Automatic annotation (TrEMBL):
Protein name as it appears in the record: Alkyl hydroperoxide reductase AhpD
The protein's enzyme class: oxidoreductase
Function: Antioxidant protein with alkyl hydroperoxidase activity. Required for the reduction of the AhpC active site cysteine residues and for the regeneration of the AhpC enzyme activity.
Organism (species): Parafrankia irregularis
Domain of life, per lineage: Bacteria
Length: 179
């Protein structure tokens, strides 16, 4: 179940992803809660049904109910914020960036877990969603809180590998179902 099952489901052409999935979930500078919250939030952001089902089940062993809820909250809020702020950044008319966003995001101020953990999860989801403005904001917030670059990098590594596994497995399953 979980990481082991996903590693079995990855096709041979994704051997590097299989190996990376094992290493990022077993060798990390992140605490267990940080790691598995990052895994869960990244799996949600990656939108792969099989990966989410497997990883959420395994994450429950490492996360309190409050931490699991906070990881889901980070994924939900970043799904909104990453689209909004990435668009503000990409629009040529910079006047849009001066307008009030008007989007409710109170959970960021009180996520129910340590703020560093929530920021790491938000950073990971922002990496999956490709929002440069959000990545910069969360990285700066983490650095202000004396989080090392190695810890920040680990969260990004986890997000990238979870995303790659989710996308690869989803595509592999779709092709298999079509044949």
């Amino acid at each position: 179940m979980g990481v082991a099952r996903l590693r079995e489901l990855l096709p041979d052409y994704a051997k590097d992803i299989r190996l990376n999935l094992g290493s990022v979930t077993s060798q990390s500078n992140l605490s267990p809660q940080q790691l598995w919250g990052t895994v869960l939030a990244s799996a949600i952001a990656s939108r792969g049904r099989t990966a989410l089902a497997e990883l959420e089940a395994e994450a429950q062993a490492f996360l309190t109910p409050e931490a699991a809820t906070a990881a889901r909250t980070a994924a939900a809020l970043m799904a909104m914020n990453n689209i909004y702020y990435r668009t503000m950044h990409l629009l040529e008319d910079k006047e849009y960036s001066r307008l009030r966003a008007g989007l409710r995001m109170n959970a960021i101020a009180n996520p129910g877990v340590d703020k560093v953990d929530f920021e790491l999860w938000s950073l990971a989801v922002s990496a999956v969603n490709g929002c440069g403005m959000c990545l910069t904001a969360h990285e700066q917030e983490l650095r202000k809180r004396d989080v090392s670059r190695e810890v920040i990098q680990d969260a990004i590594r986890v997000a990238s590998v979870v995303h790659a596994a989710a996308v690869t497995i989803e595509a592999h399953e779709q092709v298999a179902a079509a044949t």
